[in-house]
Design a protein that fits this description.
This protein has about 350 residues and is of the alpha/beta class. The chain contains 4 helices and 14 strands. An 8-stranded mixed sheet has the order 5-4-3-11-12-10-6-7, covered by helices on one side. Strands 1-2 form a two-stranded antiparallel sheet. Helix 2 packs across helix 3 (about 280-295). The model is unreliable at about 1-20 and about 25-30 (pLDDT under 50).
């Protein structure tokens, strides 16, 4: 999928999100003291005015490419990461403590090429989000969530391992990767992740204080749809920014998955594309997404393609289960070495 095609997809799947029943999402221009238009707000709609003054908290705003995110209360932010088979996009919306909104579209890396490249232990690249967790990320999986084997216990085990991959810095570089980051699977929930749908389109909802991993149909078809979405909410108080909740959704409609990428007889990475035999490793994708949860940013240099945080997923490969040198250094920069 080329960049233009991905951009077209992203723009297409956010049209119509304005019908989402977030607070004030359907407000008319006359209902706002700042004369805000109805529907999804353009990024410049508030023009440095306070979200409280304008009654805009909960309204959807264009964060770039037509991707809508909910306006946060003062001090709040929401970041949405979209992982494709051959790349990624990231959008964020932040309301500062004075109530002024900024949106950011993070640059996408060049299209992923499945080439050897420098080894995972040869690069020390990392980029960090402005937030981190000051408490454990305690997550649940939605009841009935399963991929590949249709057994939830297999999915839960992969989620636990993926969390440990990040918090313990599991690597093959001979590095001590343990950090003070903490996280754990704490059971099942009837809740789904806080992703809001409108006319088949998806965005992050308002923060609800719960951390959920689930599966669902994400926009697009085979090779065009995202593999996974992550929404992370953070709050800034007195100049300190902390993550407060994060949800992950895995695409169970457009891709096939595996827990045994190296010896799955149904897995074949070769061309031409075959939807039934192109399988992606659950643990690898979850490890990358959980990296976002903890505050790591997608890498963009082609030389970093073997780092876990490089957004390109090899088919039938578990290479992202173990962190690269840069991934380990990034987690240690955020949470300290233990």
């Amino acid at each position: 999928m080329n960049s233009a095609r991905a951009l077209t997809l992203l723009t297409a799947f956010t049209l119509g999100v304005s019908s989402v029943p977030l607070s004030a999402a359907g407000a008319t221009a006359t209902a706002s003291p700042c004369r805000l238009p109805g529907g999804v707000l353009p990024s410049a709609a508030l023009d440095a005015r306070s979200v409280q003054e304008c009654g805009a908290i909960g309204r959807l705003m264009d964060a770039g490419d037509g991707v809508a995110l909910p306006v946060q209360a003062p001090g709040g932010s929401v970041t949405m990461d979209l992982l494709f088979p051959d790349g990624a996009r990231t959008y964020s919306l932040t309301t500062d403590e004075q109530g002024r909104v900024t949106t950011t579209k993070h640059p996408a890396p060049e299209q992923f090429q499945d080439l050897p490249g420098p080894g995972a232990c040869e690069r020390d690249s990392y980029q960090l989000r402005p937030y981190k967790w000051d408490k454990p990320w305690l997550f649940r999986t939605t009841k009935g969530t399963a991929l590949a084997t249709n057994r939830q216990s297999d999915f839960d085990a992969a989620a636990r391992r993926s969390t440990a991959n990040m918090t313990q810095g599991r690597n093959t570089c001979g590095m001590s990767g343990r950090t003070h980051a903490r996280g754990a699977f704490i059971g099942h929930t009837a809740r789904q992740g806080n992703f809001v749908y409108a006319d088949g389109q998806t965005t992050c909802g308002d923060s609800d204080g719960h951390n959920v991993i689930d599966t669902g149909d994400l926009p697009g078809d085979f090779l065009e749809a995202t593999l996974a979405w992550t929404c992370t909410w953070a709050e800034t108080r007195h100049g300190v920014t902390r993550a407060v909740s994060a949800d992950i959704r895995m695409n169970d409609a457009d891709y096939n998955w595996t827990y045994r990428p190296g010896d799955d007889p149904a897995c074949d990475p070769a061309f031409p594309p075959d939807q039934q035999r192109w399988r992606y490793d659950v643990e690898s994708v979850l490890t990358h997404e959980i990296g976002h949860v903890y505050g790591l940013v997608n890498l963009s240099a082609p030389e970093d393609l073997n780092q876990t945080m490089y957004p390109g997923i090899r088919r039938c490969s578990g290479h992202m289960r173990t962190l690269g040198r840069g991934d380990v250094l990034g987690m240690q920069a955020l949470y300290g070495r233990r």
